[in-house]
Amino acid sequence: xxxxxxxxxxxxxxxxxxxxxxxxxxxxxxxxxxxxxxxxxxxxxxxxxxxxxxxxxxxxxxxxxxxxxxxxxxxxxxxxxxxxxxxxxxxxxxxxxxxxxxxxxxxxxxxxxxxxxxxxxxxxxxxxxxxxxxxxxxxxxxxxxxxxxxxxxxxxxxxxxxxxxxxxxxxxxxxxxxxxxxxxxxxxxxxxxxxxxxxxxxxxxxxxxxxxxxxxxxxxxxxxxxxxxxxxxxxxxxxxxxxxxxxxxxxxxxxxxxxxxxxxxxxxxxxxxxxxxxxxxxxxxxxxxxxxxxxxxxxxxxxxxxxxxxxxxxxxxxxxxxxxxxxxxxxxxxxxxxxxxxxxxxxxxxxxxxxxxxxxxxxxxxxxxxxxxxxxxxxxxxxxxxxxxxxxxxxxxxxxxxxxxxxxxxxxxxxxxxxxxxxxxxxxxxxxxxxxxxxxxxxxxxxxxxxxxxxxxxxxxxxxxxxxxxxxxxxxxxxxxxxxxxxxxxxxxxxxxxxxxxxxxxxxxxxxxxxxxxxxxxxxxxxxxxxxxxxxxxxxxxxxxxxxxxxxxxxxxxxxxxxxxxxxxxxxxxxxxxxxxxxxxxxxxxxxxxxxxxxxxxxxxxxxxxxxxxxxxxxxxxxxxxxxxxxxxxxxxxxxxxxxxxxxxxxxxxxxxxxxxxxxxxxxxxxxxxxxxxxxxxxxxxxxxxx
Length: 691
Description:
Number of helices: 19
Low-confidence stretches: 1-16, 179-197, 584-589
Largest sheet: 5 strands, antiparallel
Radius of gyration: 37 Å
Strand order of the largest sheet: 8-9-12-13-14
Shape: flat
Mean pLDDT: 79
Distance between the termini: 113 Å
């Protein structure tokens, strides 16, 4: 019974009669399954367009959406000799856009809530935490997948959840084996006593951590396909196929396998190519997986009936989990969906985004048709046709253009077989091909400069090339901005999940500017701000060549000169680089000052704890005095003065600052004495020369 109560607590249910619980489960499972089937049917027109995009990208371009059967059907050949070659311009456009978007990894950073030292320090901790999570979750790969899915279908999502089985091991518990737990929970009193005497197993308790993945649009089902965003949706379903054994391992429930459709390859019946190679094309076909079931996660926003929302997990006809909405990732710590929506092209009053591939499919069809008609004409000219007067050839003689072939004929009134002469290929073919290539560029926003790494026709000057490259960046900047907004919202959800689930101090490991690992402790109280920004957002639309040129320009402007030889101070230099969003380059010139600041801040923390500190010979006295005085002027220090140890702490801090001042005075006296000695020496030398 104890195990049963614990299980009910985990699933969010009350302990009740078994038959009533089973009836309730059936109703819940039926509700989720009905919602899933309904939303799947409503989303079908959008899904067909995504599938068509994928087929065209994979060279299966003689397909179209059949509105009658609501499916993708193959376009049959009209004639046996018809050419069906594919001249895939979409693939290069897609690959170029994905490469431009994914070449720069976003750098998440948190802005402090105010200019207070505490808020600035907390913002640095949050920024370091985001950086650490990015590398822990291998977000470089997820970023590439996000760019690929958004360009392919127009839409993708990022799912941010808390995985209690990840992270560092906190402790190891000895618990009864699952088989004995099941016996006790089923009322087997004979074996219930064995819970204390039977076999036990060690279970590791983890501290938990983030779990991030990309969700394709094929797995996501909103309640309204015409909602403008996720915020406008009341409920969503994330459906994904799992193996039966995996479901039992994760949720501890055995379910029966069900029909799970996946896409595979099927040979096209009408064939591809033209004369001599009309077979060999493939297209997508639906097939079924064995021993699988679709796990449907139903998320519902808080309502009056369900103040904390609902989270239901169903597989086949069984409820795997039932609880309130688990994640407080919304504004003001409200419960919300753990998803972030990314769209390539936003469409007004529509949930699903648009893809550039959709717009260029008609041009690709026209381009294939034109190139194939041209090939058919060349086949006709090269193979040829014959005029054969009636009765000029024997019945067993066939005309062909094989080399060395001898054609025997009977003169009939002087007539003989003659080859048909054809006019030259019309110039309109070439003109139309160039027109279509220009349309590819105009609609996709990817010019020859980006796709083929060569200058467009008629463009020779460097200024014109720079303008063409800037136009490419301008056209893709809208998609880059949409992805940047998605990544910022993802960073907000990360910080909110950490605030919700982290209860004890944790160790933060980050890679410093010198590639050394920095280890520090952090607590939830330091995650004050979730104002996440992308530090290098403009770099999403910049080429490596442009960034290198910017470095040379900054060298010319003297931004990398030493402070002694430059009219620009280190502080102003750092601010300029930050405004240019090159904040990761100023580390070498500001590293020593930053280290001094960090040491002075650590001393401030020890002072607040009442620990006396001696000065070191390598301390920057002026900077340390400034950092200690900043502590004395803060509101936090006023509270310290009112504490029982306030006066003692203040006295220690005053004495420490006085030691720094005395050392400054001693160094100034030494410099003055050296200057006097140098002047006296110079006077003595000059006097000797005069004598």
